[in-house]
Fold these 2 entries.
Entry 1:
Amino acid sequence: MSAHGHTVHVSAAPTGFIRKYVFSTDHKIIGIQYFFLALTSVVVGMLLSVLMRFHLLWPGAHVPFLQGGVMTQAQYLSLVTMHGTMMVFFVLTTAPQAGFGNYFLPIQIGAPDMAFPHLNMLSFWVTFLAFLSLMAAFFVPDGAPISGWTAYTPLSGIGQATGPGEGWGQTMWIVSISLFCLASLLGALNFIATLIDMRAPGMSLMRMPLTCWGWFVTAILTLLAFGVLLAGGILLFLDRTAGTSFFLPAGLVLTDQLQPHSGGSPLLWQHLFWFFGHPEVYIAILPGMGVASHVLSTFCRKPIFGYKAMVFAMNAIGILGFVVWGHHMFVSGMNPYSAFAFSVMTMAIGVPSAIKTFNWLGTLWGSRIHFEVPMLFALGFVSLFVSGGLSGLFLAQPAVDNLLHATYYVVAHFHLVMGVASIFGMFAATYFWFPKMFGRMMNPTLGKIHFWFTFVGAYCIFMPMHFLGLVGGIRRYADYSAISYLQPLRPLTMFVTFAAFVTVTAQLFFLFNLFWSLKKGAVAEKNPWHATTLEWTIPSPPPHDNFGGQYPSVYRGPYEFSVPGAREDFIPQDLEPSQLAAEARS
Amino acid sequence: MKTNEPRSSWAAFLFPALQFLLVAATVYVFLSKKYDPPPAITAAGAAIDHQYDMTLAVTAVTFVLAQLGLAFVVLKYRDHGQRVQYSRGNNTLELLWTSLTAVLFVGLALLGGKAWASGRMFEPGPDTVRIEVTENQFVFNFRYPGPDGKFGRLDPRKVDASLGNPIGLDPTDPAGNDDIVVPTLTVPVNREVELLLRSQDVIHSFFVRELRLQQDAVPGLVVPVRFTAEKIGHYEVVCTQLCGLGHSNMHTYLDVVSAEDFAAFVKNGGQ
């Protein structure tokens, strides 16, 4: 090994447009493709939510471009379904892991690419097909499905007889989700192989940036969880198309017609779905936790507090995340004894979550905070994670769930902790890594405006929703007029809706900043944040093989900021000890 | 970028201010009790409320301390040129907050067990009123066994709402002749009621806020739940499980009546 690391032979960069930007095997291009796929999906998902909020306030209003002019209850439920599916799968699973993970995991561990570049390309294009299938559900006869992103059967399992959208729309949904599962499995394999096999000399597991730990644990969860959903999806598809009865019991009567099914169990679908669905929550948030830790340490100019505890907590969350799925099913009709076990396990998962929060506060303690835009979003992440996480303590108890299940309280809880907090992690990641990815800085003034509006706006949308739920506001209701106790909730609903409109509008600052900075942003230097990890030791944007043939060796942990006696307030992971000593002497 | 010059920012003041506002507004709305659910009408419901209050106490303290703590460190450690306290962590602190939260959180879960068990795990007594609840898109039907105390057999092939047989009573079973099938739920006050929840088509739910009771009705299963209402009154029953097109219109009423009125209700065949 040479004094400047080691040399690796990598394939030459492709020159044609198609191989370079479309069917690329370069993990950086694939990461950007995932990023823009998620960006497209988040815009679609957000517009769907705007329509939903609009409908809740003015159910009879004329909506342009809509068949019939006025939104029907079925169309509202389609929006519920498609918003959830779009956001959970194509945004929260896609951007933090497949997008940023793809781009930065190989670089941060000092690798030239993913372990299986062609598999990586295949993952993206299968995900893209899944996206097209889901979008197609809008355009098939009868429109998109109405069964929610959880697709509980028999509503989703029989076909058109259960409601509009349950014909072709639901089928397209299942095809989309199954393809998505397949792509995620391929991606997870790739992440795990890359991380285990391709770390630079000296990059021990306990010297990895916490971002890499986040992606690693997430990849393991993905591998174990998405396989189960894929199996569920195939069985559901067979129930609908091949006349099987995996999830359909005997004696089903629809519009006075006895259905020819027997022997299946609707609860089986829920178990399979939530065995995936709960780890999915952590799949969405763990990369965000990694990013928040990484960004906090960088802009505190201070090592992360309790690195080992942070790694332990992420792994504990990953493991416990697989034994808590039953808390989605307390009132589902499953054996009430099992609720005890799921409840205790769910409360236990609050412990590693609390460990992470305390360590973030510990990192801030005694630091010297630089309030750059990524840091603002990381601070927002901590605040939102605390608020959203604590309401989970209520929902984790089956007795209390009697009152709160299926109300807006649940909607508030998971939007804050899994939705908005994860999105804040992604915003932090975008503002932080944009200079590395595109070689230009994003505009900090626009970034700050975006942050303040989004931070205040998200709280104004989702804090009041807890109260809507407490008093009995039921989720997935297209119309409040039938239930008398829902009538007094209109002012609060209106407040939430206007907060949503303002917050969505504020995202234009982000979109404009993103596209404007691609072309016009100030040129970024190699290491604009004075950060320590390997991606900041290479040009912005990095060359095709990341390290220009000279691969780094790693000599220390990822967060060596403000080390006493050092000349600078940060020490890059690949700075040789002899050079460091020389710098200190000079 | 010169690292030693202070880089102050108004964010150092705005962020803590917003955190403070968040805490103040949240605490205010909780204390105002403006959005509290209506009072529980069962002892089990009161136990659930007690568990809720304990959880609220734990989370409120944690919420206020954590959010104001975050505000405090952001304000205090804004860049005014200070030296960073180099530290990689503190194992004693890790141990302390890990064990503290473990005891608090798991303790809460264990305490909540009893309130859950009271509604779900039981043997019906001799005096328990048994009522079968059948849900389908998008109506509730409640069946009382009638004077003979026995439910008649059901046959899904006989379901025909237009012929007045929405739940599919089998006419060949004499036990079903006196069964009462009505679209609203009437129960006697201060007497244990067991509901047997069924669904004919998709998954529905049964939720009454005042009972603090929510339970899905799943096709293929009969799910028992229990409650003893202690207050005469008229309450709304809603479906909380997404069941299709008419989900938000699927509702009915619970009437808690005196023992005499209930006897009359049964005697008159549900009138």
Entry 2:
Amino acid sequence: MKKNWWKILSIVLLTYAVLGGLLLEVPRLNIVNETIRALYFHVPMWFAMVPMFAISMVYAILYLRKLSHHSDIYSVEFANMGLVLGILGIITGMIWANYTWGTPWHGDPKQNGAAISLLVYSAYFVLRGSVQNDEQRARLSAVYNIFAFVAMVPLIFIIPRMTSSMHPGSGGNPGFNMYDLDSKMRMVFYPAVVGWNLLSVWIATVRIRLRIASEKLADQNL
Amino acid sequence: MNSTLLTLLRKEFQIEIRNGSALAGLALYLVSTIFICYLVFWINSNQLTPLTWSALYWIILMFTLISTAAKSFIGEKKGIFIYYYSIASPHAIILAKIIYNSFLAIALSLMGLLLFTLFLGNPIYDLDVFALIVLLASFGFAASLSLLSAIASKADHGAVLMAVLSFPVIISILFIAIRATKNCIDGLGFSACQDEIITLAAINCLIAAVSYLLFPYIWRS
């Protein structure tokens, strides 16, 4: 991951996604109309948030196995990034919902699920804040991270599928079926997903390096 | 392993029976909250719709069970942990806590159901299906709250943290239980709740397995 090609790729893909998302032709549907372009910005947030939380959980498992301080930093920073993406996803969704459903918050099962999973990770940071000992904090938060991810799975993958929702693909269907996404829109949507994922990893790695460096500096000053 | 588990379980029950004050306190907590609801709705008894009933039941149950499970690790003295550590494996300890907490949770939730029936009436049509759901949900609460109590006991302000940590985790169990309760109120029979029951059982297995696997890492410190 030290190479630069994926950073350049993420810039290229996101530039394409922003330009293409705003300029390329989209199908006209009732009510949705031009707001369908929000799909390029709203959905990739969730498609990037879940991988970030998953990576964070993997590093939490690694921490518990090896007890290396660096895994803890990785785990925290990826959780941080996932939280930011989740908040952005909720905000973009609320803007979109305001135009298509009439109100920003509709009590839709997916909205509630997303809000609760953000609560889970906020609780993760509260837990980190309330333990003084470094090693203890890393260990407890790693355990909670794994536990929270497992508890989040039914919340965002199972329950929304059991209930009726205004999001597409609810009530037993797979989340994103091939019938409601126009093939032209895929040309922008998939690059946007990949681009956002790469950008999030990039931001997280920069923050991780910053954190490790500042800890080294603090050690030298002691 | 099995004998330590049994010994630990027996010890939990003995302690509980010997100082009945903790259990009595929880029972009183349950009685007084339900009595407050009774006083509020007694003024105008036809205001209590079945859905309000179900909301009250699950809210009261959730908070009672959080305070029940919270005391499983938070209340104990530091010295006792070191003693446990030297005599038993962490797996035996968490299993004992989960089993004991589920007994307690099931007892409290059935008692809650009885008190609700007594004071506020009972709009549930399929009582047997509802009882099954209450059993499953109580076990799920016990399994997740035991581990969270262990986490909270290691941090500062354990009791406050307990509520913050547990709410998002148990909400999925609660959500499914509330949906199933609605079906029981409408009297749709077992087949209508089948999906919910299977999902609830699956979540329970998942949470119990994760608690069992993760507990040794908390215990070690």
